[in-house]
Design a protein that fits this description.
The chain contains six helices and six strands, in the order ββαββββααααα. The protein is α+β, with helices and mostly antiparallel strands and about 210 residues long. Helix 2 runs parallel beside helix 6. About 20% of the residues are buried.
């Protein structure tokens, strides 16, 4: 059922399960944080580009880590689920911050096992090329596509597309397609870099013994 949710539009995509640290300095969002703290409210982060986009992620305030003499704050938050904005209000009733009438997006979390293994292989190649194998080692065995969202070189629009998918299978297909496109380019770039290292250097070669 639609409900009113405080909104904090930002130029970023937040995936469910993600922990996000924020520095709060504008008076309207300081008020939002205080309301969340005092009334146990959640709030939403919709993507803002040239306008507030339709989809966003519901956030729970975990803690206020630091309050500055100016009233600014450092906060820790956790992302919950995805929602769609039905109606946007520049100001919530009697408040400084924005709000929206939102509906939750129902998600099918079931993954495809074969796609999971295929993506795992692509990731191994990707992180080997980038020298980031430790990122793969940090992933839990049962990781979700959301856990990969910020580590694949996706543009903001591609991340938003991932957020808009309503099933784990659809997200797996998007990630597999992305990796199938970028891996050949990265592998070729690495091959050219290796070749360029051999050019312009003195080479210690053993001639054939006729």
């Amino acid at each position: 059922m639609p409900r009113l949710l405080p909104l904090f539009p930002l130029n970023l995509v937040v995936f469910p399960g993600e922990k996000l640290n924020l520095h709060i300095f504008e008076p309207r969002y300081r008020q939002l944080v205080q309301d969340c703290l005092g009334e146990s409210l959640t709030f939403g982060i919709p993507l803002y580009t040239d306008q507030v986009r339709e989809l966003g992620t519901e956030m729970r305030l975990l803690s206020i880590e630091k309050t500055y003499p100016t009233g600014e704050m450092d906060i820790r938050t956790e992302a919950l689920g995805v929602f769609r904005i039905r109606e946007f209000f520049r100001q919530a009733p009697g408040k400084l911050y924005a709000a929206g009438t939102i509906e939750p997006i129902i998600d099918d979390p079931a993954p495809d096992a074969d796609l999971h293994r295929r993506i795992q292989g692509y990731l191994r190649q990707l992180y080997d090329v980038l020298g980031l194998r430790q990122l793969l080692q940090k992933l839990p065995a049962d990781y979700r596509t959301y856990d990969l969202g910020h580590h694949l070189g996706l543009s903001t629009e591609q991340e938003y597309q991932l957020l808009s998918a309503t099933s784990e299978l659809e997200r797996q297909e998007l990630i597999a397609e992305h990796l199938e496109q970028v891996l050949p380019v990265l592998l070729e770039t690495e091959r050219l870099k290796d070749r360029s290292r051999l050019n312009g250097h003195f080479k210690n070669l053993t001639p054939p013994n006729f």
